[in-house]
Amino acid sequence: MPSHEVTPRYPDSRDILNKLRFLPGEGQIWLGEQRMLLMQLHTMATFRHEIIRTLGLKRAKSFFLRLGYHSGLKDAELARAVRGQEMSVEDGFLTGPQLHSLRGLVKVIPLALEIDPSRGHFYGEFEWQDSYEVAISEQLESSLGEPVCWMQLGYACAYSSQFLGQEIQYREVECRGRGDARCRIIGRPAHEWEDHATFAEHFREDPLIDELYELQSRIAYLEDDIARHKGDEHYRPIGQSPAFLGALDLIDRAARSEVPILLLGETGTGKEILAHRAHQQSDRAEGPFVAVNCAAIPPDLIESELFGVEKGAYTGAVQSRAGRFERADGGTLFLDELAELSPRAQAALLRALQEKQIERVGGQRSYTIDVRIVAATHGDLMERVQDGRFRADLFYRLNAYPVVIPPLRDRRDDIPLLAEHFLERFECHYHVKTLGFSDQAMALLRAHGWPGNIRELQNLIERGVILAGDGNSVSEQALFGQHPGHKAGQTLSESGHIGQASETGSDDLLSSLCDQVLEAEVSLDALEQALLEKAYREAGHNVSAAARRLGMSRAALDYRLKKRCML
């Protein structure tokens, strides 16, 4: 049996060094056919520390094991090219540790090496001296109580497995990063380790996106369930105008039937609240109410979000999970922004409505579902049908019972009721007690054109409560950002509606806003928190859309949201 049981020796390394090319004029470094990088140790230390804080210790360990694993795969290929067939398998194998040392990651000292390809036998034992992972661990981390040379361990596993054509696993049995005298690893065929299956899980991708969507869905369901049982005012339709009461009557008449309801109307008119009303008035009231904003979910994820996904259906689907249809079984599924569904999702939705069955993405099994559909859109579905962007058969299936929700400008008698409702809510949220609306503020609320409908009213009153503060009236200035007697950014027309003025007053408006914030003694931190929450919520929890509205990069907003635990 070919064997080197004690202190194997490295072959001459000049053939490796001949493959190393520095091209500073081109900004390139090459080792064989692989482009290399030089990077500061401190940069890697900061990166590692941030990954641990972001992902947690377990996910971070797996991340760096996989990073080293991919490097080891490439070096196994390079080792064969460098050493060819003229060397023994042991000498050729030792090319990997030499390459590992050449990169400045660690000095690898072979202690024992036994290889017998005919029997599938392998035993390798190596000492790591001056490991860079120990160095950065000492810089930025307290003792983790376990070995820390994750990237190097992943490299050893991948290199050995790829070079020998069988799965080899290593364990770091000693590590200076946890207080041992040295770093030492032992490698054997995977099946010889009792925990080989558990260890192999580290090398499977474990993306957070599916888990985050799952948690988001569960939170939304729990919030809806709590609100339903507590009679939360958030889901109580408010209004007494004839146009609104007419729409409400249509919804109540259809509530106890199984006909799909299609809510039509402008953005911000409160379609989700009315969908919840249909659910509460139905025989399914004790079942779940599940809402989906089709426009807020990326097109390539909408099918898995609606119908679920089986493990392995695509890269990153590491576990099977139910979709919104299954979670809404026995209750109501509200599909908001229906017009944004992709063609594939439209076809799957039509099948679900016709056959009352769904299939998870990547699955073969059909699931029977009992779901009542309430859909909503602000766009013209018939126009989309005519230009081919929306299936005609699905449209006629969902358009069986359309209900038009009137815009707020057609419900002017409801504005005081809604304004008082939002005032009470935000007073409670921000722990303040105002003196209510000034007469001029209420007159302007009634006169405004409300292109953003109820959502615009809600956001305007939230702003007014923040700027008014405790013990003050919510004034015209707090709501609309105007100097008394001067409507900066807006003008009251002869018809009584507020319209946009010229942009010449934009500087005055900004100055006015600053004055209001300072006079109300609102802290900068509180103002930023409220602004971020508002932009993020209005964007349907889409970070990119919220960032565009705030005029900053997505990365900058993502950092602020994470810092404030809003992501």
UniProtKB/TrEMBL annotation:
Transmembrane segments: none annotated. It comes from the Bacteria. Keywords: ATP-binding, DNA-binding, Nucleotide-binding, Transcription, Transcription regulation. The keyword Transcription applies. It holds the Pfam family V4R. Residues 237-466 form the Sigma-54 factor interaction domain. InterPro entries: AAA+_ATPase, AAA_lid_NorR, Homeodomain-like_sf, HTH_Fis, NO_sig/Golgi_transp_ligand-bd, P-loop_NTPase, Sigma_54_int, Sigma_54_int_dom_ATP-bd_1. Residues 483-502 are annotated as: Disordered. PANTHER family: TRANSCRIPTIONAL REGULATORY PROTEIN. This is Sigma 54-interacting transcriptional regulator. It comes from Halomonas mongoliensis. The lineage of its organism: Bacteria, Pseudomonadati, Pseudomonadota, Gammaproteobacteria, Oceanospirillales.
